[in-house]
Each structure stands twice: as structure tokens, then as C-alpha cells.
Predict the structure.
Amino acid sequence: MTATYDYVQPDPDTTIVEIVGTIDCGLLAASWSPDEENLAILSAERNVLLLSRLFEPIAEKFLNPNEITRSSQVSVGWGKKETQFKGKGAKQLERERLALKHAGLNIDSDNAILHDPTVAELHSGTLSQFDYQTCKISWRGDGQYFAVTSIEEIEPEVSRRVIRVYSRDGELDSCSEAVDGQEENLSWKPQGSLIASTQRRFEEEIGEEVLDLIFFERNGLRHGEFTTRLEPGSKIVDLDWSSNSEIIAFQLFNSVQIWTTKNYHWYLKKEIFTSTEEPIEFIKFHPEKPLKLMIGTSSGIEIVDMTYSITSGPTASPDDVGMTLVVDGSTCMVTPFAIANVPPPMSLREIDVDGPIVDAAVSKSNSLFAVMTNDSVSIATVDLSTIVKGGKHPEVVTSIPKGHICELGDHLRQVAVVKDNVIAVLFDTTAFSRIALIDVTDVLVPVVVHTFDVEPCKAVLMQSSLDWNYLTYETVDGSVFKLEVTNFTSSLIGKFPQLCNRFGVAVVSRGENESDEPQYIPFGVTANGRLFMKGKPLCAGVTSMLLTDSHLLYTTAQHQLKFVHLVNNTDLFDESGSENMLESAADENDERTRMVERGSLLVSAIPSKSLVVLQAPRGNLETICPRIMVLTEVRTAISERRYKDAFLTCRTHRIALDILHDYNPDLFYSHIKEFINQVGKVEYLDLFLSCLIEEDVCETKYKETLKESGDASDKPGNAKTEQEAYQQKLLQSFQGMTVSNKPVKPQGKEKISKICDAVLNVLLTPQYKQKYMQTIITAYACQHPPKTKEALELIASFTNEIETEKTVQHLCFLLDVLKLYNISLSTYNIPLTLVIAQQSQMDPKEYLPFLQNLHVQTDLRKKFLIDTHLKNFEKALDSLIQMSPEESENLDDEILSYIVDHALYKHAMKLYHNKDKEKFKAVQKAHADYLHSSQIYSEAAATYEQLGYFEDALECYIMANKWHEALMLASRPELKSQLEDTAERLVVSLSDLHDYSSAAYIQYKYLNNIGEALKLYCKDYHYGKAILLCYEEKKVELVETVVDPAIGEGFGIVAELLADCKGQINSQLKRLRELRAKKQEDPFAFYGDAGENADTPDNVSIAASETSTKESFFTRYTGKTAGTAKTGASRRTAKNRRREERKKARGKKGTIYEEEYLIKSVGRLIERLEKTESEAIRLIEALLRRNMNEQAYQIQKNYVEVMEILKENVVEIYSMNERDRERIDERGMVYLIPEIPVPTIKDFAKLNVLDY
């Protein structure tokens, strides 16, 4: 698109033209929207035209000067006019006018010129003399609005520059307020509501004109500014934002300035000159890559790739002071974070040079600085010890001109300091890159000692190695080289698969088995966030990286700070590793991972102080103490037996103090005295003992990951086959079973008690006891279980009441005061108990009367009352028995009553055994009464019989159904009259227990009732005994009148049972087959509700509601409703569990419990048949003897058939798949019930005479 093209006479040799339209009056400005869907044009007739991508008209608006005065910048479309905001100071001016009017001054308030000195003066929009009088258009990043800047004549011969904001549809949204000295520059921030422009104003403080970059909101109001620091008379030709809105570029005459903002401060980061130093025609950021800038000159186009770089000092001890350099125009801001944590945009000290800074570097000792501009390299020094207290800024001692380093046509790019005496300067010539090495042993007389050509391609980045002894640089192809500054030799140490815009070279040891010579390993991060070690990918989604002498630190897009061990980490050098191999397990206790603020980037690391400095996106700094660095410091201190340092570090960073023991228990116990001496303070030892926990913190919360990294046994790929892996695992399991002489690490309560005992062994010695009395009490109280009695005995030995009360207060703080009260009572120390009670929340009315009563009692009575109060009834009985009869008149009755009240029979019999037979028998009698009341009749009867209480013994034997013993006692002469009654009662009770044989014997032997005896024998299917009794008593006729009918009745019962069993087996087997076939055909219909709702009419809703009690397909197997599923709550209440058990027991047809119910029902049938088999055999034998062969044959045949059916189908019946064994526990979780074992079906013992 051109504003001056002559379409009448085109040049056919150089131009291919497609004319889509013409505007006769000409164009002033034009711009495509970011999505290239709309084209905005400003014509010479001051019309704004909006065209589609096919150049179809959308809208046309005239730039009417009257719009400026009509526009209300912040109209919200509602409310009254007087409540609308009219800009800064409008309310104040209105109040001033009203005050003058009410004071009687004849003044027109509309024309009154008043000014509030506290409010900025309103501008009239005076034009700048440097304004090009042009118009520009700029779109917002989302393409919904665009801004047009133009000069409008407000009044005759009065003009000002106005920014109009239009919507995508061409509707005017707002006009900017008047700004004196505003120029034609215009650029809308892509991700935001700010519109950038420039303003030239006179600064009274310095007495000259300054050029500001100013910002407008979409409503046209001003929103901040900053000074561009350009020389008076300088001109900003154009502005452009990066796509992420973090960078704004100024196009000057022959250079481009790059500005960024952090913490509301704008930094000039770089001034870029073209290689030809020609005037710049235009600049443009890449629409997707925010750090790629295109610069156009009359002779060509240059594309500049930029990257964020943080200049930090050494990160290896002892030089790790967190030195960080920040470039802001011609000022290098210096802050050592380990000495002074100064927040940006401030800094501790500054270095000022001539001209915008290109790069800066610091030496190994943090005392020498190299600051590079486009024309020179300045060297500054400072004494680090006085940088804070002395208040001195680093002093520039010398400056090396560009001509002494390279040709004037070359471009200085980067600077680095090696050790403390060599400065390396990277510069580009027209064909390749070169590195100049400058010896600054004498900083006043720097000498260029060597210039090194970088081959075969240009260098991209240059910096010192991690140990600051070598120079490293990366070339365009991703190769990383190490340059010796002594002999000027270069060697390749690695190559990245692609160019990395951040890299570092670590000095790494591969382990004890490798060579002692350290290796230089390069790590790099690409622009898309991939982390490489040489050519090996380590991780993706990396946002920043930092190296220390022992760790690789990096942040991820998931807002995590991660650490990788560099020392003895064999996994790091495993060539079989793949990308994301550094991703640690999802363990919240993994010391290698820490969550950080969203978007935070690494700035510096200070291992000697366990500090890491990060910067959030808005610019503020956050200094953290990562757990891995703190634990490394603690472990080192423990290994070196610096227990106090380790303790204070743990206390400061809230690390569990158990690590002092758990990290190396043997070292702890062998130097326990040294530990106590170092920690020293009683409060510290109390804190250590009282904070102990049962777990081994070195295996849970603070598991050392360095051992994991170095342990190659668990790495994938070590076992070549699955068989080898299985054999290795099996071998390890057997090795774990071998007996080892290595001491086992104490765990749980044993650990705490062992530590406390070890401390007590030292503190109970005379030289420690007096000073550490409180710690001794703490050690007693913190054991599991607490040694409270020992602590109370120690306190009881005190003679000083104040010390006693103070110690008791401390003990009550550690333990439950009510338990202490009871334990103190158990020691029978009433004064100490009173002191403890006074520390509790108990009402004095509760304990004072009781304790006062104890004071007036004898020792034994006092012990008796205390033990009774504490429910130590056996000890109380001991004291009561030891009392003399003089202490109580009815002592024996009191003892017996106490034994009965508290059921102390066994203990009392133990005390009286072989000592007092009369009292022993009295206790036995009371015990027998207790057993009788407890329905333990057998033991009660034996005791009564032993003591001679035969009637009580007889009653208990009858109640216990001990008929032999009962009849024996009833046969005694003194009880002969009760024999018949005893026999009748026993017959009834034995019949109720189905012990018909015993009842029949009693009927025949003691009641002489043969008929009843025969009936009872037949009920028990003992027909042979019944027939024998008939013949013994010579009453053969009873066989036909009594026995034969009983045999027939037994035949009917067994035959009916077999028929019922056969029918049940067939019906249940059929139902099981139907269920299993239905499951295979349509599992969803079986397990869900679809089958039940199949015949529902279309006009009836079958959707389950939230209040419905019917289980759906979801709730049936999860135990949760739609409402509780999201909360994790279970609906398995006690009521619902009981309901489920009832449903399970019923086995209702169609439920998930039906199959299990049917299988268990068959199991009960099998058990019943097995119990009935012996009775059936006796019945068959009786039928044969009484010539009932047909009935006997029928019973045996039916029984065999039933058993055969079961044997054939038992495996099929009990085959229950895993899905049907699913059940829901109380938490609503699915589990599997145990498999129901398949029973063994035995063959029926057939009689050969009937087997036909």
C-alpha cells in the first residue's frame, strides 16, 4: 500500500500491481489489524475508513474537531452528570469557583482561571516543535480497538494532538486529554490497556527539555510516564511493543533502545546499532517470538535475537556472596544479596559509565567489575568488606578504549572475568567472532595479551566456568568450548542438539570409582524450555537454570524449583536416560522439589547460607531457604559433630530435631555427652526431647536423595531380562532374611525411650544433675510410656518448695495433669499430690476434703482409701487384709463385703490359701454364689459339692444338664426324696437339647417308663437299642406297637427331606445358570437398572433423583450418590450397613447379592445332608430288619441321586467371577469378598444288599 503510487504510469519491469481501489485525496496513515481481518485507513480528507480483508467497506468516520470537547473520557453510561469524573482537579476547581462566588466576587466561574498548587496543572495541548505533523494508527493486540493520532484545530490558529480510540466496528470510543508537547508516536500495548506516545517538556529542576514516554488509557486519560534520558533535541522516530508486552523498543536515528519494566521502574537494557551504522528506516517485533526484532535500513534488513541474561557472581563457597549486576542505561547496579538484600529497583551500590552498557561481569573475589559499552570497557574495583559499612561505590579505575581491543568497525558484544586477573571480551567482525584476553593484574595498566579467533562459526554466548578458572563459550551450532587463559588453547567439552540461549559449565565428579580428575559438563536451556546436558535431554518446560558446586537448580513451567545432585550422581551420566528423567516422584517429602510463586525465575544461589534468590514476574525478589540446601548443611554439621550448629539450623528452619539422632544414631549415642555440652542450654535440650517423634525422619520427611541418585541398583536397564530382575529381587529378599551383626536402628516408641535414657545416663551424674534438673524431668516425661513415677520420686526428694512448685508446673505442662494427680496419689505422697492438684483446673471442693481425710488415717487405711479411689482394688484388698482387728471392729465382714463388691475372689483365695482355711472357705462360698448368679453352673456345682452344700450343688448340676453328677447326688440318702423329681427335670431338659438317648436311659433306668424310653430312642434313630430293650424286658409286642410306627415316621421325614433337597438343587442351579447367562449377554442391564425399566412407558420419567434411595449403576459399586461423590463422603452409615446386611441375608431376586445367596444356600444344604447321613444309614438298616425293603431301597436310591447331582455340579455352582465378588466398605471403596471354597462331596455309604 502506497500513498504516492502513480497507477497511470507503472514500471512494468519492476512492478506487479493489482489495483483493488483508489482514494483520490490520498492517504495519511494505514494499518492492518493483528489478525489481518480489518484494514484501518486515514485519508487526506480526514476520514477514517475500515475495510475488510477483501477490501469491502465496513465503516467511514470523519475526524470531527467537535468530538474532542464533547467526549467524556470516563463516562460509564449511567448516573448524573454532576457525579461523573471530569479529570484531576475538576472538583477542586469547581469548589474554588463556588467559594469566590459566595464571597461576593463578581467573577464568571466558567472563565475564572484558578489553580490548586496540589493538583497538576491542566494542559492546553501545545504542539512540540519536533512534531513531524504526521498521523499514525495502532491496533490493540486482540484487534478489538485501534487508536488514531492526528493534529486537530480546536480554535482558529490553535491546534493540539489528539488520540482517538475506535472500536472494531468504527465507533468512536474516546478522545485523549490535552498534553503539552505531545508528539506523533503511537503504539498500543498488545496485552493491556495502555497506549504509548512521547512528550517533550521543560524540566525546571535541570533547566532543559526532556523527552518522556507517556501512557494513555483506553478512555483517553493519562496513566504514568517515564523519562527516556535522551539528549535534548533527540528524536524518537517510532515505538514498537514485543508480542508479550514486556519490551518496548525506541527507534532512534541510527540505533534502537530496548526498555523493560520491573517493580514500576523502566530499565534501559540495551542500545542496538546496525552493522552498517546507517539510519534506521523501521523496526518491528516478531508477532509470536517476543525477543526477535527486525531492523530495516536503506541497504537491508537485520534480525536480532535477544535473550534474558542474569549477571551473577560465583555460586561456589567461599565466594558465594550472591553478587548480582543489573544494567540500567549507563548505570550498573551492584547488589551482593548475602550481605545486603536490597529490593529492586534500588541497589546497594552503582557503577556509572559513559554511554549505554552492553554487558557487565564480576570477578571470582567479587571485588573487580568489568563494564562494557559500545565504545570501551571500564574496570571498577571495590573492597567487599567495606561495601556496606564504608558506603563506597565501586570506583572506575581505568577504561580501555574500543580501539585498543579491536577494530573500530567491530562490534563489542560480551565481557567476562576469569579468576581475578583476566578480562575476556567477545566481539564480532564482519566474518567471524574473536575473543580478546586482557591481563588486569595491574588494574591501572591493563594489557591485551592475546586475541583468539572463534572457529568454525560465530560465538553466541560467553561466560566463566563454575569455578571461575576457565572461559567457556557457545557457538551458533550449539558447541561449547573451554578456553585456557594461560596457554590460550581451546577444547570442545560438549555440544547441545540445538542452540541454547542460557548455558553453564559445571565441574562434576562422576563418583569414587571414576578418575579423580573433575570433568567440565555443560548444561543449557533452549528458547522453548528444554534442558540439555551435552547432547542428552534432561527435562522439558524449564524456565530458568542455575549451577552451584553441588547442585543444578532449575524452575519449571509447573512453578516448581527443582534440584539435581551433581556430586556422585551416576544417573546423570547414564546415556540410556530419556527426557524428563529428572522428574522426581510425586512425593511431597522429596527434598529436591519445592513449589515457588507462579512465573518466578532464578537470580542467584548462596549455598554457604542455604539461600536461593528468585524474581517474580512483577519484579519483586523472594529469598528462600530450600529444604535440600538446609538439610545438606545439617547433615554436614552432624557428620562433623557440630551439633549446636545443626540444632540451631533445624530450629531456625523448622526442621524436625529427630534428624540429629536419625541421621547417624551410632554417632549420636557414642558422643551423647558432647552433644549435651554443645547444645548447652536447658531450654534447647527440653525442646529436643519434647519434639521427638516415633518415625525415622531420615526415611520419611528428610530422606536423603543423594544416596538415591548414586545408587545404581534401582536404575532401569540394569537387569537385562525379566528373569534376571526376578532373580535379583529374590536374592535381595533372601539377603534381607540373613542374620546380621549390624545394630538395628531403633524405631517408634523404642527410639524415643532410648534417646531419653541415653540423655538421662549423662544428666543424672553429679556434675550435670543440678543444672539440668528440668531436662531430667523432661526426659522422664517424654518416654513411651512416660516414667512418671520416677519423675515424681525425684521431685519428692526436693527440699526447696519453690523449686518443687516450678518443677511440678513444668511436668504438668508436659503431661496430663489429671493423670499426674492419680499417679501422685498412687505414690501415697499427699503433699506432692496437693501441689499437683493446685496446678490443675479441678475445683478445690473436689480434692481438698478427700486429701484432708487422708491426713488423719493410718498408713494402711490411707493406702486402702487411695487404691480404692484409683480403682486398684487388689492393692486395696492387700492393705485391708494387712490391717489389725483393732483398726476396725467388723474387719472380717468388711473384707468379705469388699471382695464381693469388687469380685476379688481369685485374688482373695490366693491371699488366704494355706493361711486361713475358714476365711478361704468363706471366700469359696461367696465365689460359688457369684458363679451361680453368673450362670456358670458347672463350676458353681463343683464348689458347692466340695463345701458340702449338696442341695445347691444338685440344683446347679441340673441347670448345667450334668445328669450323671445330678443323679449321683440325688442318690445320696439325704437327697433320696428328690431323685424322681430330678430325673423328670433332666428328661425334659435333655429332650430340649435333642439328647434323646440320654433322656431315654433316664426314663428306663430311673422312671421305669419303657414306652417313653422306646419313643425317645426312635427319635434319635437308634432303632436297634429300642428293639433290644423290648427283648430285654420281654415285651416283644412293643416292637410292633411302638417301634414300627416310629420307623415309618422316620422314613417319611427322611424321604421328604431328600425330595426337598433334590428340588432345591435343581431350581437353584437353574437360576444360577440364568443369572450368569444374563450377565454375559448384557452386563450393563444386569448390573444396572436398564433391565428393570425396559417396559416403562415413554411418558414416565425413570431418571433417578438426588433423594432417591434406589441404587443406580454408579452408586451400586461406589457406595456414593451424585452429591457425595464430589465430596469424598460415604453414605455407608450404620443404618445403611445394617440394611445392606439384611438385603444380603435375604438374597432378593435381581440384586447383586442373589448369586452369593444361592451359593451359600447350596452350601447349607450340603452340610445338612452330611449331618443326616448317619441317621439315614440307621434308618435303612432298621427298615431292612423290619422287612421294609422297598422303603429302604427308596431312601438309599434318593440319597445317592442327590449326592451325585451335587458332585456333578458343585464346581459350576461355586464358580463366582471377580465382578460378582465386589463389595463396598464403610468408606464407599470397592473391595473383593473372599472366594467361597468348593466343598468335597463324599459318596453315600451304600448297602450292598440294596445296591441294584
About this structure: Residues 906 and 927 are 8 Å apart (CA to CA). The chain has a mean pLDDT of 83. The chain is about 35% helix and 20% strand. The two ends are 115 Å apart (CA to CA).
